[in-house]
Amino acid sequence: MLNVSQVLSSGLHRRYGLLLMVLVSVAQASAQGRPAGRNDVNAPLHALQPDYPVPYQPMSQSEIRVILDRVFGYLDSVTPARMINKATGNEITNGALADTNTIVEKKDFRITSYEWGVVYSGMLRAAETTGDNRFADYARKRFEFIATWVPVIKEKFSPDQIRRKDLLAQPVNPRALDDAGAICAAMIKVERSAALPGLRPLIDHYIDYISNKEYRLADGTLGRNRPQKNTLWLDDLYMAVPALAQMGKLTGDKKYFDDAVKQVRHFAGRMFNERMGLYMHGWVESMAVHPEFRWARANGWALMAKTELLDVLPADHPGYGFVLEQFRKHVAGLSAYQSGSGFWHQLLDRTDSYLETSATAIYAYCIAHACNKGWIDPVAYAPVAMLAWNAVTTKITDRGQVEGTCVGTGMAFDPAFYYYRPVNVYAAHGYGPVLLAGAELYEMMKKQPFRINDSALQYYP
Q1: pLDDT in tens, 351-366
Q2: How far, CA to CA in Å, does 33 sit from each of 30, 37, 38, 53, 69?
Q3: Phi, psi at residue 302, to the nearest 5°?
């Protein structure tokens, strides 16, 4: 019997081509008693296994917990809640001893940024779903630190000194929605569960800024005066709506719910593309024609704002039906743009833009949460969330850092700006969404409703 090398040397392959080579290879494998590989020429076509770029399988609670614990361990080690003397490095625990050398100890991240507001919400949700209070304690410890030191800083330092140093400037003097909303929403969640001393004045201070001091358009829509006057950034839905919604829940005052629903209505009316089910990133009142750049993370902020609003908005509120329908339209639109690897692209409708982690994690969380809540059909959408979560886990390092996250991003009118934004493990925007997504998938897997059926990842409630 000829072997492959003999066929090549004889030149027979030139006459009989690939068929002869395949037949010889099969005969060799059979003669030598070797089992055929799962994807070799002997395998039946229906038995061929896809080469998935990310795990294509249900992830168990224990596997999800490994990721959550890894990210928690990293964050806990690099976000201290301590005042120190910058000259000596010694901790300062007595506010009376604070002086011009006093600063907040900083390692990898600031604990008062809006990104950390998402982290605190993620920690609280992880505690709820896993039952592990370490996650909630992470948030409470840092809120206790902030609540203790803000009055000291207000008393002992001038506004110029506070701006010049890392002295908790954002809670002392919020100057933008970024400074206020996400942190405030997380603080209210803690206040609702177990009030911490000194937390409520901070909450009231933040809400006063959002409700009364942030710039608004003539119709009350929260806006900005950059890069143009009377500008809307989609990001600001998340920077305001969850805090307003949580304040409505905390106080029972309907005005906060009304304002939150109004923001969703007004942003959607100006920025939501009904045909695509996606939002543009920025809108400028003076523009007749708007360049529509559908940035992934901004769409994530919008989806998460609606998620948090639906969590606490009374079902009999006049705006509940609109918010729920808008949420469903957005989920349907986003699901249509998920890539085959489970990630979404930096610009959602431009497949040559890079795959981005933080937005993918946000969508995984919101879609899984909606399935768990019964807002959307889990048979249709739970696999979207699981595939997204599996993709995100490929970006978690052994240390617990999150790779592939776009850095902070302004609003622009050309594609190059979005295409070439850097990604970095120190882009803080990825960590809270990963915690939220993991917590929600953990909840979904409590009943182990996923299984592989005919090689497809499917959900069976």
Answers
A1: 999 999 999 999 999 9
A2: 5, 12, 15, 32, 47
A3: -65, -45
- pLDDT score recorded for residue 38: 64
Pick from 93-102, 181-190, 424-433: least confident = 93-102
Q: What is the mean pLDDT of residues 236-259?
A: 98
pLDDT interval class at 59 (50, 70, 90): very high
> Can you name the residues that pair with 283 across neighbouring β-strands?
232
Residues whose CB is less than 8 angstroms from the CB of residue 319 and which lie 6 or more positions away in sequence, other chains included: 257, 258, 261, 262, 264, 265, 313
φ/ψ of 238, rounded to 5, equals -75, -30
318 or 6: whose pLDDT is higher?
318
Comparing C-alpha atoms, which of 187, 177, 28, 71 is closest to residue 120? 187
Q: Per-residue pLDDT tens for 197-227?
A: 999 999 999 999 999 999 999 999 999 998 8
Note the pLDDT of residue 49: 81
What is residue 386's predicted lDDT score, i.e. its pLDDT?
98
Are 435 and 123 in contact, with CB atoms under 8 Å apart?
yes
Q: Is the pLDDT of residue 172 over 50?
A: yes
Residue with tokens 């490095």, as numbered in its chain: 89
pLDDT band at 178, cuts 50/70/90? very high
Q: Is the peptide bond before 50 cis (omega within 30 degrees of 0)?
A: no
CB neighbours of residue 210 within 10 Å: 23
Dmax (CA) for the chain in angstroms is 94
Distance of alpha carbon 308 from its chain centroid, rounded? 13
